[in-house]
Write a structure and sequence with these properties.
It is a single chain. By secondary structure, the protein is of the alpha+beta class. It has eight helices and five strands, in the order ααβαααβααβαββ. Strands 1, 2, 3, 4 and 5 form a five-stranded antiparallel sheet that branches. Helix 2 packs across helix 7. The longest helix has 18 residues. The radius of gyration is 18 Å and the shape is globular. The relative contact order is 0.23. The chain binds flavin mononucleotide. The site of flavin mononucleotide has 12 residues, from helix 5.
Length: 211
């Protein structure tokens, strides 16, 4: 087994270099269960409304199940990323498209998929959407940060959720009571250097006291 990876990243480096990783997911190298659980121990330190912690964490490693989930992902991907849907792309858009296409083509080959779930579906318990999703997504992002600091990479995806019920059937998730929040392919990254990404200037998005 290859040695464990621990990256010596400052908090600011971690926050600014946890990227959407697709082409640099190492599809050959297994991911130890122990490392995934270590990331999860950190993730569940995240806040949730009233400290409800109604989260469940589904790791998928069986090839047949990964293949079935990848098929659902691709079913939506082929619609969302069709030439008609995308229209004319600039150079950056084309780079993202190629990266996304690579992930779609290889989704079934990732060593592990993680599907964060939350008990009771949104809207069935009187909670608003922000309260509902705000009780699971911070933990999901913490998982990805913890993963990055251990040499793992992932990318936040939601496409399979169009077929969430079918995914629930594949995994035995009780769909009527439990919602899926995304699907994160997890793998060691090929190389561990990632850069800060360009983002909008704060000037365009910051408001002080008045819009
Ligand atoms: C809610 C959400 C849904 C996303 N869905 C997908 C997806 O289905 N497939 C995919 O390849 N990337 C998906 N992404 C990844 C984004 O494309 C990515 O975060 C964005 O391009 C920024 O990448 P960067 O952090 O490397 O700059 C999603 C991200 C978010 C936050």
């Amino acid at each position: 087994m290859e040695p464990r990876v621990t990256l010596d990243l400052s908090p600011d480096q971690l926050l600014s270099t946890t990227r959407a990783v697709r082409k640099r997911l190492d599809l050959e190298r297994p991911v130890e269960r122990e490392v995934l659980l270590e990331c999860l121990e950190l993730a569940v330190q995240a806040p949730s409304g009233s400290n409800s912690q109604r989260w469940h964490w589904m790791f998928v490693t069986e090839p047949d199940k990964k293949a079935a989930l990848a098929d659902l992902y691709r079913r939506m991907f082929s619609v969302a990323y069709s030439p008609e849907a995308l229209g004319q792309l600039d150079a950056t858009g084309e780079r993202v498209r190629q990266s996304a296409q690579y992930l779609a083509d290889h989704m079934h080959e990732v060593p592990v998929m993680l599907i964060p779930c939350q008990w009771t579906r949104p809207g069935t318990d009187g909670a608003n959407q922000a309260g509902y999703w705000g009780s699971i997504l911070p933990a999901a992002w913490s998982f990805l940060l913890a993963a990055r600091s251990r040499g793992l990479g992932s990318v936040w995806t939601t496409m399979h959720l169009v077929y969430e019920r079918e995914a629930a059937d594949i995994l035995g998730i009780p769909y009527e009571r439990c919602a899926q929040a995304g699907l994160f392919p997890v793998a060691h990254t090929i190389g561990t250097e990632f850069k800060r990404a360009p983002r909008k200037d704060l000037d365009a998005i910051v408001h002080w006291d008045t819009w």
